[in-house]
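[Automated response] Your request has been received and processed.

Submitted sequence:
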Amino acid sequence: MREIEIDRGDRVLRVRDAGDPDGPVVIYFHGTPGSRLDLGFGEHIAGEQGVRLVTFDRPGYGGSTAAPFGLASIAADAHAIADGLGVDRFATLGMSGGGPGSLAAATVPGDRVIRAGVASGAAPFQLVPGALDHLDDNDQAAMKHLPADPAAAAARFAAGFEPLIDAVAPGGPGPAVAFADLLSPRDSELMEDPRLASALTATMREALRPGTSGGGWDNVSWLGAWDVDLSAIGCPVLLWYGTDDRFAPLPLGRWLAENLPDARLVMREGEGHFGIMEHLGEMLDALTEP
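Generated structure:
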């Protein structure tokens, strides 16, 4: 494993390069909030399966310079990372709030992205019937600034992540407690594994180390109107959702399956939001098969 910085002109992206350096590449897009450490629990799985796993912090998270962003710019960042690493072709995988980034990277013209994966990911909330109705009061207030003032919306969204800073700080109760109302029974069982609970705490602590602006712009990028054309995706899309996911409910996955050009939806009965912690190996296999 190595960590590097990719120069993007007036900012840098912090990148983690793990797994098999000679294997097929999967570029991973972390959750909201999350960081390049999201899959720290499973980097050994990537190595064992011969997959090179590249993860990076979006702007304002972890070690990446804070800056406004949308899905198109995140896609451009991913392709710039591939350029910087000398990678010709790759698959993408996004978890939760990273799912839109995985799809966005696949909209870039050309056949560079071989497959796009979404694990318990967000869909275009403004197009999924009823999706916006489930936002909390803070996010509803932030949405009122869109589309006229995305910076104001980002600031209001960012405020909603402030309580998580204390939750994931050393001695804090941890994200499992902070998200207790949203955890499915299966999610709660996974959080009883100290290794997985520690991994979730570590990635969120790193995510929020510089503040909450990354989360604010994340929410603007996919709760607001998407600035990419999903019909431009030319590769297969693999979707994994739990039927008991309370963060990214199954209707989001069904919408993507019905509206993307070439998508396959895998629904796991009784599972929740953190299925990637159980099924990462299967996902990497499916994304990199010959």
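Summary generated for your ticket: The longest strand covers residues 12-19. The mean pLDDT is 97.
If you did not submit this request, please reply to this message.
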